[in-house]
Amino acid sequence: MDTNPVIEMLGRRLRLAVIGGGPGSSIGSMHRAAARIDDRYELVAGALSSDPDKSRRAASELGIPRAYGDGIELLDAEAERDDGADVVAIMTPNDTHHLYSLAALERGFDVICDKPITNTLEEALDLLQRVEESGLVFCLTHNYTGYPLVRQARAMVEDGQLGEIRLVQVEYVQGGKASENDPVPGDDLPWRYDPVRGGPSLVMGDIGTHAHNLVRFVTGLEVSEVAAEIGHIVPDRLVDDYAGALLRFDNGARGIFWVTQAAAGVENSLRIRVSGTGGTIEWMQEQPTTLIFRPLDGPVRVHTPNGPGTLPLAARASRIVAGHPEGFHEGFANVYSDAAEAIAARRAGLEADPLALHFPDARDGVLGVRFVDAAMKSSAAGGAWTSATLESRV
Ligand SMILES: NC(=O)c1ccc[n+]([C@@H]2O[C@H](COP(=O)([O-])OP(=O)(O)OC[C@H]3O[C@@H](n4cnc5c(N)ncnc54)[C@H](O)[C@@H]3O)[C@@H](O)[C@H]2O)c1
């Protein structure tokens, strides 16, 4: 990534405002770092907390030029300025994604929002409609799609190297919620433990949507039906900490989906294995710089970023010569940088490089929430096969 298409198209970087992601948050610093890695954004404004004083203080302490007390105040003020923000990135708790995304679109900002897009399918569908009506760019930060070898996996599937896809296994296993000392009713519940704020299923909103999106990104397939069990494995817990499901895909392929946050000692084990008629690929997030390809009729191949056999979609996702590890920040930055290219092209009335248009968008967000919805319905019906398509929603 030696050139800067945003500067080429606009003659300047995009002006970015952030809502959420204050000091100590899980993901705020990742967004801010991702935005800067390729010099496509300049951070100009922030509202970093729901408490106005904390919000202004946090933005000032981080050196963000314009510090606001509230997200809507930020959007109103930035929309009025000649040098106001172009793009708004939202990394607040899940229940505010719809509110801030909609308010940003209504004021003409392009939007980058963290997952899940919303907590409810109705809100997600409403947002998708508003995005389509506005013509603005909406990027959803399913950041695992930005890893060079996840893009290589997708490109190999598109290239036909795996043949017809028949089997998919995805797991996202964490151990962060393996201990049993959760908040109890009456405590000041952290937002994730409050179904109104965190969404109907903690594990599905937090990591199930990532796993579902990764499968769709790599295979290009859609989940047509799901048979799921979702619940809690830690006794007396009030929120979901595991989900297991069988999947049927729109081409007839079969899959298995397993996500939990209660596997003691496990860190961030996101893994995918995809088998087609021509071979199998395997990738693990904790060893992101190797992609194993097991062809049907040949020796096993190990792909590395920028190594031999790298396809163009993956090559543009690496910034460094082969052998130098790239990881979470760089993957996140790829999503930001591709969104920047699409936003700059839209603003300049130009076409973006088609290879830049692989970042997750509002439709991906809707399908993620639809999958959660269908899996929960299946689980409530004792694991019955349940349609997960948008057309079949009730
Ligand atoms: N892409 C990823 O891998 C990833 C990882 C973690 C979290 N997330 C998502 O990011 C979002 C935030 O999660 P988190 O773990 O960072 O939460 P967090 O609780 O750690 O941090 C939330 C931050 O938002 C601020 N905030 C809360 N309400 C606000 C408001 N109304 N206006 C402005 N600021 C507000 C808080 O002060 C805090 O700084 C969630 O939607 C979550 O699903 C994504």
Short description:
This protein folds into two domains: 5-143 and 339-355, Rossmann fold, CATH 3.40.50; 145-324 and 366-387, Dihydrodipicolinate Reductase, domain 2.
Structural summary, described in words:
It is a single chain. The protein has 394 residues and is of the alpha/beta class. The chain folds into 2 domains: 5-143 and 339-355, NAD(P)-binding Rossmann-like Domain (Rossmann fold, 3-Layer(aba) Sandwich); 145-324 and 366-387, Dihydrodipicolinate Reductase, domain 2. The chain is 35% helix and 22% strand. It contains 12 helices and 15 strands. The strands form 2 sheets. A 9-stranded mixed β-sheet has the order 14-13-12-11-7-10-9-8-15. Helix 2 (28-36) packs across helix 11, helix 7 (148-158) crosses helix 9 and helix 9 (202-219) packs across helix 12 (362-380). It is globular. It starts with a helix and ends in a 7-residue tail after the last strand. The model has no long low-confidence stretch (mean pLDDT 96). The structure holds nicotinamide-adenine-dinucleotide. Residues 19-22, 25-28, 47-50, 71, 91-94, 96, 114-115, 141, 143 line the site of nicotinamide-adenine-dinucleotide (NAD).
